[in-house]
Specification:
Oligomer: single chain
Radius of gyration: 29 Å
Structural class: alpha+beta
Number of strands: 8
Mean pLDDT: 84
Shape: globular
Number of helices: 19
Strand content: 5-15%
Largest sheet: 4 strands, mixed
């Protein structure tokens, strides 16, 4: 056995030399795997990604039997994003694997598997010929670079605040402080903060979500956690749109309260929200659903759902409901002591009934609607998931309803589950059932706005209620998911906008908005820069980055595919440009509103 293993290593080193050129040409998130078969019969290697839930094993390679004591070998490129499980079978027989293993392979690594027989027992030995590179190093470099820039900015601000700096500037300008006081960087920074009574933390939260959205939409440097989850689970990319929806609800509460106090009639509010909804949907359908490479827009393939369409419909339903049930004078309800602890809920009880009815309809359709060829209540991706039993059931009732309403040619044909789960069915992540839960998500944001309005005289009460809501929603999420990714009653799923996805992201939203509210509006420790600038021009930045994403300088032909460096630099530069553009627009007092 020892002699065979040594021979395998020697042979592996020889194969490594032959494959060295191939290894140098590997793209990011790729590695080489070479299998040596010393067994005197054919072997088959099967694999499955650990992120792929209950997936059928896929054939990776079949190696013929060793000939004249010379092993056969084959080299393939494998993906290093998720851990892989391998099984080695004798021939093509459907029996227990002779050996199996699970491993998370490293980027650009070269790995060898030696399959040997010892007294009739087949064993697999793992060898490493080339050590993997650190795929997270570009992120570390980017983080340190941004940290240095941030530190340099505040160091400059500190230097400008020094008295000696003021004196030096006075000498250079030959002016006294009385004639023309020198404005420090900190003073100019404060000048950048709006002087009106806007909730700066809300603008900052919106800008932070939008900045992160621009980054992940540009590609997120090619990192899988900056892209949407294949099906169940959460990544950074899955956070941004729900946060944006939450902010819509909070903005509706604050804006409508202000307009009602100014005496604007509710009928005018209905006209305003209807117009805004139509414009958002028109932009989504006519401009953002296709690119220049797609040619003239054709009804034959035009996608009907979309991000702006969902945002527009969500805004319309929520704003229309709040138009009829909002209270212009919330101070009047403070005298009812028996409802003091829950007056932010009791005062708006009709809205809670409407939202509960919408969620009930959604759950009934999801778990009770009979979908042809699919089990009732199916929430899986179809394809090779669930051991391949339901290949055409992607999304269950949600996918079925969208195809019935819009037609298969008018919904999204490249869902995030397509690559990993080998799905063939179209599925739209902005579909009908998910839009209902989008309204629910916005309603939690509306609730945050109500809390701010009712308890605005006591910031501590606002923070405590935000914390209570986040804990309550977190507990609901834990129950629905059983604290697992795939085994819960209702898993967290961004494609479906499942109930647990809504409660989890609402929990995060209450926490993040509460933190920003305390730091920015209560303690005045931070003015929200630079995120407050895109937050005050969100429509312009979102539409602009969507339309220009494929043009220089936001995109160019990448020369180095072997690492994340150039992709990360490209996406960070594109994001930084939009933040800078929004800053310039803010300085010019240009704010695009609908």
């Amino acid at each position: 056995m020892a002699v065979g293993l040594i021979a395998s290593i020697v042979l592996s080193l020889g194969v490594s030399t032959l494959c060295h050129a191939t290894a140098n040409e590997l793209k990011y998130d790729e590695a080489l795997l070479t299998v040596n078969n010393h067994v005197l019969e054919t072997i088959t290697l099967l694999y499955a990604s650990d992120y792929c839930y209950k997936c059928l094993l896929q054939q990776l390679m079949t190696l013929p039997a060793a000939q004249n004591l010379q092993p056969t070998n084959h080299t393939v490129i494998i993906n290093t994003r998720f851990a892989l499980t391998f099984h080695v079978l004798r021939g093509n027989r459907n029996e227990e694997p002779v050996c199996s293993w699970k491993q998370l392979y490293g980027e650009h690594g070269h790995y060898f598997i030696s399959v040997q027989s010892n007294n009739g027992t087949v064993q697999c030995h793992n060898l490493v010929s080339r050590s993997p590179s650190n795929c997270l190093l570009p992120l570390l470099v980017a983080f340190v670079s941004l940290l240095l820039i941030w530190g340099l900015y505040y160091l400059t601000a500190y230097v400008f605040r020094l008295a000696c700096t003021h004196k030096l500037l006075e000498k250079l300008k030959k002016k006294t402080c009385k004639d023309e006081p020198v404005a420090s960087v900190s003073q100019r920074q404060n000048d950048d903060i709006p002087k009106n009574r806007r909730l700066l933390s809300l603008d900052t939260f919106r800008g932070f979500s939008l900045t992160l959205m621009v980054f992940v939409n540009h590609g997120g440097g090619g990192y899988w956690f900056f892209q949407h989850a294949p099906w169940n689970g959460l990544t950074v990319a899955d956070l941004v749109m729900p946060w944006f929806v939450f902010i819509i609800g909070t903005s509706v509460a604050l804006a409508f309260s202000s307009m009602l106090k100014r005496g604007i009639h509710r009928s005018k509010l209905v006209c305003k929200l209807t117009w805004r909804t139509c414009v958002l949907m028109a932009i989504g359908v006519l401009f953002l659903n296709y690119g220049p490479a797609d040619g003239p827009l054709s009804w034959r393939w035009a996608r009907i759902p979309g991000v702006l369409q969902r945002l527009g419909f969500t805004y319309f339903v929520l704003a229309l409901m709040h138009t009829f049930f909002s209270k212009p004078n919330l101070e009047l309800v403070e005298s009812h002591q028996w409802t003091a602890a829950v007056r932010d809920i009791v005062v708006y009880w009709p809205e809670w009934i409407i939202i509960a009815a919408l969620e009930t309809v959604l759950l009934c359709l999801t778990f009770l609607l009979a979908v042809p060829g699919c089990p009732t209540g199916y929430l899986g991706p179809g394809g090779i998931g669930d051991y391949g039993l339901y290949p055409n059931c992607t999304g269950g009732a949600a996918g079925y309803i969208d195809k019935w309403l819009f037609g298969a040619n008018h919904i999204y044909n490249y869902p995030t589950c397509k690559e990993l789960y080998k799905t063939t069915q179209p599925f739209d992540p902005e579909g009908v059932l998910g839009t209902i839960n989008s309204v629910v998500m916005a309603f939690f944001g509306l609730q945050a706005g109500k809390i701010i309005l009712i308890y605005r005289k006591s910031p501590n009460k606002i923070l405590s209620r935000f914390l209570i809501w986040s804990i309550l929603l977190g507990i609901i999420s834990a129950i629905l998911t059983k604290c697992t990714r795939d085994e819960g009653f209702i898993p967290i799923n961004k494609n479906l906008w499942s109930l647990s996805f809504i409660t989890t992201l609402s929990c995060f939203s209450f926490l993040l908005l509460g933190l920003m509210f305390y730091v920015i509006d209560v303690r005045n420790w931070w003015g929200g820069q630079p995120f407050i600038y895109p937050g005050m021009n969100s429509i312009f930045v979102y539409v602009g980055h969507s339309l220009l994403a494929s043009y220089f300088p936001f995109n160019w032909e990448v020369k180095i595919w072997t690492s994340h460096y150039e992709f990360l630099a490209q996406d960070l530069l594109g994001t930084a440009i939009w933040v800078f553009v929004s800053y310039l627009l803010y300085r010019k007092k240009f704010f695009l509103k609908i």
